[in-house]
Write a structure and sequence with these properties.
Shape: globular
Low-confidence stretches: none
Oligomer: single chain
Helix content: 55-70%
Mean pLDDT: 77
Largest sheet: none
Structural class: mainly alpha
Order of helices and strands: HHHH
Amino acid sequence: MTLARSKPFGVLWLFLGSKTRPLADKCLEALRAYAELARVLAPRGKAVPTTTLEEAGFSSRQIAALKRAVTAPAGVL
């Protein structure tokens, strides 16, 4: 029996041998990161960087709409 075929190493080989794939689309990931930052920074009066949104291809109009949506009080939209 080789190490790759033994039970514990076989499972490890399954994960080590596979290619890493991104969990989300770059636009969705940028949006998620922005929303998390905005919910922490905006209530404290701090600016939320939009660099990742711009890099992901969001337009300035879309970014403005996202700012309003993410920073709006719950139930308001």
